[in-house]
Each structure stands twice: as C-alpha cells, then as structure tokens.
Design a protein that fits this description.
Blueprint: E1 10-13, E2 16-24, H1 29-41, E3 45-49, H2 55-66, E4 71-73, E5 86-90, E6 100-104, H3 109-122, E7 125-129, H4 140-147, E8 152-155, E9 164-167, E10 175-179, H5 184-197, E11 203-208, H6 214-226, E12 232-234, E13 238-241, E14 252-254, H7 259-272, E15 273-279, H8 292-298, E16 302-305, E17 309-313, E18 322-324, H9 329-338, E19 346-349, H10 361-371, E20 375-378, E21 382-386, E22 394-396, H11 402-409, E23 423-426, H12 438-445, E24 446-449
Parallel strand pairs: 2-15, 3-14, 6-7, 10-11, 18-19, 22-23
Antiparallel strand pairs: 1-23, 2-24, 3-5, 4-5, 7-9, 8-9, 11-13, 12-13, 15-17, 16-17, 19-21, 20-21
Length: about 450
Amino acid sequence: MTQTKHYPHHIDLKPVMHAEGTVRLPGSKSISNRVLLLAALAKGTTKIVDLLASDDTFVMLTALTSLGVKWTQDELQGDPATAHQIHHVEGCGGVFPHHEADLFMGNAGTAIRPLTAALAVIGGDYTLHGVSRMHERPIGDLVDALNAVGTQIEYTGEQGFPPLRIRRGHIHAQRIAVRGNVSSQFLTALLMVAPLMARDHAVTIDVTGELISKPYIEITLNLMRRFGVTVEHDGWQSFTVQPGQQYQSPGTIHVEGDASSASYFLAAGAIGGGPVRVEGVGRDSIQGDVRFVEALQQMGATITMGENWIEARSNGILKAVDMDFNHIPDAAMTIAVAALYADGTSTLRNIASWRVKETDRLAAMATELRKLGAEVEEGADYLRVTPPAQILAATIDTYDDHRMAMCFSLASLDGAARRGNEMRINDPKCVAKTFPEYFAAFAGIAKDTLI
C-alpha cells in the first residue's frame, strides 16, 4: 500500500513546453470507499477490480479489519502498469463481527462519515478519530440526524467534530432529517445505512435546505442498486428505502478511474496543447466529475470522449468563465488554476464547501494563486481569478491537501497566452491520499521540459 512509498520534502517542476500522452487513471476514491463498506455489509463475497490504492482506502481497509471483516488482495500478475488490482471482501450480512474497536480514520471523509453511520446503527462500543484536520471537519449534521432516531454518538472533543464515541442505541427510525448544504457525505452515510434500519418499516430521509454535490449522491444510489437495494426519491429532497431489502454481493464490481484525478490531465491538454487522453473513465461514467469537461469546453478546449476514455486538446487561448461549480467542487479546483491561462477574469461560484475539505481550500487557493502573480478575490462562497501577464515562479504550500499539490503542478505548463514557470511543490507526499503516482504520471505527459 501507499505507506511504503518515499516522497521527498518537495518536488521541483521545470517549465513544460507541451503536454501530450495517455494516462491510466487510478480507481475512484468515492467509488472505492463506498464499495468497500457496501461489500462489508452485504451477504456474500465481493470481488473488487481496480480498487484505488491510496491512503484513504488503506484507512477504510484497516478499519474493516479491526471490525472483523475479512478481505484479501491478489498478487499483481504481469506489468504493474497494466495489471488489475483484485480484492476480495467477505460480507458480514449487516453485522460486524467485532463489537468493540478503536478506529483511526486519517483525514478520509469518505471513510469516517459512512462508517460512523453504520457503526451507530449496528451498535457496539467504538471510538473514531483521525489527524488534527479531521477533528476540524464538521460531522455534527450527521450525528444530530442519527441521534434524533435513537443512536448514541458522543463527542469526546469539540462539539460537532470528531473524535467520536459510539455506543449501542435504540433505533426508531421512520423519518430522518439532515441538512444538505455542508457535505453530501452526510446524506450518503444515511442512505447507505437506511436498509439496516428499514427492517420492518420504510425509512425516509428528508433533506433540509439545498443539497450540494448532487452527483456524489447519484454515485451512492447507483452503487446501492448494484448491491441490491433501491431507493425511491422525490427529486433531491426526500429519499425512501422500503423494508425487507438487504445488501447482496454483485459478485464482481469494477471501480472506474477517478474522474476528479482526470481533471488535472485533461486541463493539461487544454492548456499545454495536447492531446492528452485519460483511460478508465468516459461518457458512461457514474461520476459527476466527468462534467468537468463541460467547463473546459466553455473555456474553449476541444474534448472527445469514448466509452472508457476522454481526450482534451488546446484550441488556442483559454476563455475566461463565470460558472456555478456546486455540482463538482473537487474538480472545480482545477479550473481555478486553469484560469491563470484564460483571456480575462474567471469567477467560480457556489463553492462554500471548499472551506470544510482537507483544508480551507478557498483561502489556500487564493493564497497560492497570488504567489503566481494572479489577482484574486476570495468571497464566502466564490473565487475570482484575474491571470497575471506572466506566471511567476513560486514555492507552493500544499496544506496536507492532495488536490492543492496536483492542481498547482499545472502552473508549470506553457499555455497559448502566457508561459508557465518553475514550481516547487512542498510536501508532495499528500498526493498519496488519492493518487500516489501522480507526479510520475504528470512527468509522463510533460514534453519538451525546459532544463
């Protein structure tokens, strides 16, 4: 797993005159951790193909082991660059074998939120904690929703945030209300455990306020169907699970390539000439972040798509955009850096959720973009970026946030409007969260690098 890989304190990227090539994407983080938990809760053994190998999935696999879930990983056969990762997870039929555990969740939101819900509904004596940043990431809306229907979750630190202590409660869930405007992971967590609560009666989850990041809920609903549970929903405000449904292994499930990770390479093609092709995700993806290509198209890039691939190339100077990115907040970060190469001021709107991610991404992005010479206006839920005449060489701080490191590698590219520059990326090991081999993959598409 990723823990054995060595990373330097920083990586220096030379200016890149042209970007071209093909990248095989690692598995989707969002799909990987959902599939792991669903496979653990299901009846039967699930064969998972191309599970993401990263810090976040390592956290989930380690937690499942502590809960008594048995899983194995096949040895890679053939060339590691083309071989498929195979995992087998033995489902527990909705009850974890170990009723007590102390679980370290790192900074993996896709692990701690659904697992908190599952453990609270199943019952036992569990503690969940993580890195210091995880203890600053809100979980109160999820805890409030669960405790209101009889679970027993306590905060052992600051109210509304991990770490948590979970004891056995007395569930009486028929209707559950949860806020939708902080993180879609709270609704995902409740949806994934709803079948465990809907033994004798239907369970309805009502969303209060606007639901952000709706495409991530679509991933959840799609994967629940793959494991035999259907959810009825009235738009995005009400979701119902009928009684008597139980997760069943689909036998084999393939994890798509990560659409958020695809954004960096597609943007590189749009900025640095191209064509750059990503493999593992395409027009039939269940991930909403494939809609990132719509933003690139609005900026003037040429996009072509196949069933399992997407390709981007430059069509001249990028155009400035003014767009709502509520639906793809993670991939939207890539647009903030691509805006350095646009013909005017770009505005990214409705991205307040950036503030409760791995770091306060609105503040971090504004700080680092200014280092490059950009004029940046940071609002409560928007970012306005005016590109500099010339991108400045800079040392980029990454805030232990994988997406900061990957986004700012793009500032080394030579675009049609202005030349990229040398970038020093501090603490590159943060990419291990989702894409341990990112910088090697980026080097693979970097052509004509200036010495």
